[in-house]
Design goal:
Chain lengths: ~260, ~270
Amino acid sequence: MTTSRAGSQESAVKVLTGCISIVVVLVAWQVSASSGLVDASYTSSPLEIVKAAAELVTSGELAQNLPTTLFEFSIGYALAVVIGVPLGMLMGWRLRVRQVFEPLLYALYVTPSLALFPIFVLVWGIGTTSKIAIVFVDVLATVVINAMAGVQETDARTLRMAHAFGAGQMAQFWKIIAPSAMPTTVAGLRLGVGRGVITVIVAELYGGVVGLGVMISAYGSSFNVPPLIVLALLAGLFGLIVGSLLRRIERSVFRWE
Amino acid sequence: MAWTSVISTVRADDQGKIRERVYAVVLGGGLIFIGAVAWQLAVMAGAVDEFLTSSPVLVIEGVVKQIVSGELLVNIGISGLEFIVAFAVASVFGISLGLLMGRLRYVKYAIEPYVWLLYSSPVIALFPLIVLIFGLGAPSVVFIAIMLAIVPLIVNAMQGVDNVDPGLIKVVESFGGNELQLLRKVVLPASFPTIMAGVRLGMGRAVVGVVVGELFAGQGGIGYSIDKYASELNTTQVFSSVLIVIVAGLVLNFIARALERASSGWRTDL
């Protein structure tokens, strides 16, 4: 009991210190901006940022652009998961399959996938298709590599036992390999969300018609800083929230781990 | 003669290993080779437009052209320098900050929220602001790369310190060791492998920062030339430059993994 009380006290200290730190930074930022200590046209100020956020919401500009970004992200991400998880598991399970795809995926994994985006633009134009493709490519490598690692972590003794008791290949896969690969696979899905969100926005920034990245690009080229910061923060918070949601799901589902 | 004696000493399990190596190269290389051949044939048969898709032969010729004209050397020089500066700065600041956060929990609690925000934010989205402050070109690119690379360096150094055996720390403290001695004798050696894993991740993110930063804010380098050739609709040179980026990524990843392995080997000697 004492340890759990100490633990909850510690996490209260953690949250409190974090909040104090955020408040201090925001106040210092506001004061230095409004007193003219730093040039507010560069740094903006928290109040201006809140005002810009309200304006983006009430003007309907956000509502106009957000769905496109979410659509591009969701389709690209879903495709990467649907193809990546089975492919990764198969690669972890079957050596020959792994040997076929590993070099290509490895090259994809260590390359900044956004470097491929200009090619996608040349092929598919600056519409949604090229964004879906880049999110797909970026998330795919992460998902495949984690699913593969998950399968490879399967306890060999459990597999031998299943084999000894006459379990067939399919039974071994569905009853032992797939379940034990789940935690690592889901961790890959979580990492993929963060990467995918950043990728879709940067891709839109490079070239797009509608979307958050396009808004950022427009505000950036007119040096209108407050909405620029609002949008960057929004993207960061989205990644942070979805990431911690998935982490929570991971913890409650895989508690037995 | 020497060769035959070497071969005859190869044992059966080594032969198995060699066979596996051959399989890996043939199967993995086979997919890439078949893909390249299909691409080349499709272009030659006129099934796809060469102007849009280029072709493997043209791409290789493009790389050779970049080598001969010296363009490749200049680009690697610019991007390489940006990478080295960004990675060095990120390492020094990131690891120091991470160690400090690991040792002082209030510092950790106060700074952690910003680290996670930095991790999940598209730093590149702020490039208009960054360019406004640092100007177009290398300084902006270096700044973007630092912001990307620093996160895993901080987080891993912090976790490395967190995982140090508290008993060891207590021993040093009760024998009157000061913070510096504690750092040198216990904390750094014990957290070194975790820090090196962070170094590997940080290197990867620094590459992303340099290439993507150049795409938006560069005035030279490999990322910049991808963007330049794309705006000229020079598909072949875009592919050639991307191929160079892939090779650079593989080489750097190889170096980072070797460093990481060396560091964990060093630990087992301890």
